[in-house]
């Protein structure tokens, strides 16, 4: 009851609701770039599912390897007749008779099953590479979310600086108006600029909170997560001139492994026509023994099965060939796309480095022009129209430079992704 009354009192106070909402907002945990990527890889359930896929493929491989081990099973049974069987006073089959036997079976010739073992090993390799590709995608999502927080933070810092500048000029215009030296028009213009910057601050604060929440979701945190510092996204060395970098990309290695596995299946198709041989050994114990049935016996059977005609094997091989060619086409298409991604990322990094440097100088010049205009305005050498225009120009230049910096960071990340070097 006291809590409800206190909440009602806070709500009716001026700004009470806004303060209550501010208090209710959870604080954002700060993470570095490497920490955010590592947490995403550790906590994302997609990575866990990929690891389970590896275990499943390994279990299937162990199942396929069972062809090199014998199958052993035992049987116990009791037969009860209405009466004993026999002739001339001899009992050939007792009324109650128990049988115990064990059977060991070993496929001494099983070409198709031996091939299945190698094919299962290919699937383990595919599952392992697929897990690496999943990790790459999860890390890329976390990295993009991290960069979005940095951009939103820079935009908020720019908005806050512009608001402070606008408030200082508005205060100066008010003092001049009250002292009889300024004009109402100059004060209204300054107040308008303050309102504009106030709105920009609120918008950037909301964008920052959304970016922090998105980063929190990417790293599976219980609340928003803030970025702590800029990431180091520089290449360890110059990009390679040959195409060895293709082997570093998990997606290329995945499709390559799938093509190799499909090709092995096609090459093993002839083994389906080979005969299969099985050896079976069965010892048996019967109690009580019958007249024609001793107590202890054993049986060994060697069986060879030959497929003389199977109409399904031809179409099955055609399906396997089609799967292999489809895998080859997917790999060729991915390599073309990968080469394009690398060229685009290299071009983007080169041009955005120059653009970011140029726009940074433009933002610095616009800031210097704003300071000169403010000094001239305070000295009475110009009106606040020039000041407002200089403020808008400086704000736009800072925003543009910040966007260019963000695009450069994104381009460097794309280059690392294209080369298969992220995550390290």
How would you characterize this protein structure?
- This protein is α+β, with helices and mostly antiparallel strands and 424 residues long.
- The protein has one domain: Outer membrane efflux proteins (OEP).
- It has 9 helices and 8 strands.
- It has a 4-stranded antiparallel β-sheet with strand order 2-5-7-8, with no helix packed on it. Strands 1-6 form a two-stranded parallel ribbon. The protein has a two-stranded antiparallel sheet with strand order 3-4.
- Strand 7 and strand 8 form a beta hairpin.
- Helix 5 packs antiparallel against helix 6 and helix 7 packs antiparallel against helix 8.
- The chain is elongated, with a radius of gyration of 39 Å.
- The two termini are 56 Å apart.
- The N terminus is likely disordered.
Describe the main β-sheet briefly: 4 strands, antiparallel
Apparent shape = elongated
Radius of gyration equals 39 Å
Number of strands: 8
Query: In CATH, what is the class?
Result: Mainly Alpha
Give the uncertain stretches in residue-range form: 1-23
- CATH fold annotation: Outer membrane efflux proteins (OEP)
Classify the helix fraction into a percent range.
55-70%
Structural class: alpha+beta
Mean pLDDT across all amino acids: 88
- Report how far apart the termini are: 56 Å
Question: Which sequence of strands runs across the widest sheet?
Answer: 2-5-7-8
Count of runs of 4 or more consecutive helical residues: 9
Q: Per CATH, which architecture?
A: Up-down Bundle
Classify the beta-strand content into a percent band: 5-15%
Number of domains: 1
CATH superfamily: Outer membrane efflux proteins (OEP)
Helix and strand pattern = HHEHHEEEEHHEHEEHH
């Amino acid at each position: 009851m006291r809590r409800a009354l206190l909440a009602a009192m806070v709500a009716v106070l001026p700004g009470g609701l806004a303060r209550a909402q501010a208090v209710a907002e959870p604080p954002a945990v700060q993470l570095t770039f490497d920490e955010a990527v590592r947490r995403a890889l550790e906590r994302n359930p997609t990575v866990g599912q990929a690891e389970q896929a590896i275990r499943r493929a390994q279990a299937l491989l162990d199942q396929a390897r069972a062809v090199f081990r014998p199958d052993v099973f035992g049987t116990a049974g009791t037969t009860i007749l209405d009466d004993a069987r026999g002739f001339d006073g001899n009992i050939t089959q007792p009324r109650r008779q128990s049988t115990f036997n064990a059977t060991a079976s070993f496929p001494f010739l099983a070409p198709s099953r031996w091939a299945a073992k190698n094919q299962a090993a290919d699937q383990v390799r595919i599952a392992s590479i697929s897990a690496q590709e999943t990790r790459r995608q999860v890390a890329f999502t976390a990295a993009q979310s991290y960069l979005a927080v940095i951009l939103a933070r820079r935009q908020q810092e720019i908005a806050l600086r512009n608001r402070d500048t606008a408030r200082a000029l508005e205060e100066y215009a008010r003092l001049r108006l009250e002292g009889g030296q300024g004009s109402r028009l100059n004060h209204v213009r300054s107040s308008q600029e303050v309102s504009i910057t106030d709105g920009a601050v609120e918008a950037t604060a909301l964008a920052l909170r959304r970016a922090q929440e998105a980063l929190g979701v990417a790293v599976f945190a219980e609340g928003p997560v803030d970025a702590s510092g800029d990431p180091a996204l520089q290449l360890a060395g110059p990009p390679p001139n040959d195409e060895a970098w293709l082997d570093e990309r998990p997606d290329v290695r995945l499709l390559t492994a799938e093509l190799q596995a499909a090709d092995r299946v096609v090459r093993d198709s002839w083994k389906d026509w080979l005969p299969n041989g099985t050896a079976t050994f069965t010892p048996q114990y019967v109690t009580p023994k019958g007249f024609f049935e001793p107590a202890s016996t054993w049986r060994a059977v060697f069986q060879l099965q030959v497929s003389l005609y199977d109409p399904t094997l031809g179409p099955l091989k055609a399906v396997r060939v089609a799967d292999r060619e489809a895998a080859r086409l997917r790999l060729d298409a991915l390599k073309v796309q990968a080469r394009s991604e690398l060229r685009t990322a290299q071009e983007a990094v080169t041009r955005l480095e120059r653009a970011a440097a140029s726009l940074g100088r433009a933002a610095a010049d616009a800031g210097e022009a704003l300071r000169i205009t403010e000094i001239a305005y305070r000295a009475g050498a110009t009106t606040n129209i020039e000041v407002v225009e200089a403020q808008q120009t400086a704000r736009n230049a800072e925003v543009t430079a910040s966007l260019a910096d963000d695009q450069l960071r994104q381009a460097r990340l794309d280059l690392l992704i294209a080369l298969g070097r992220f995550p390290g």
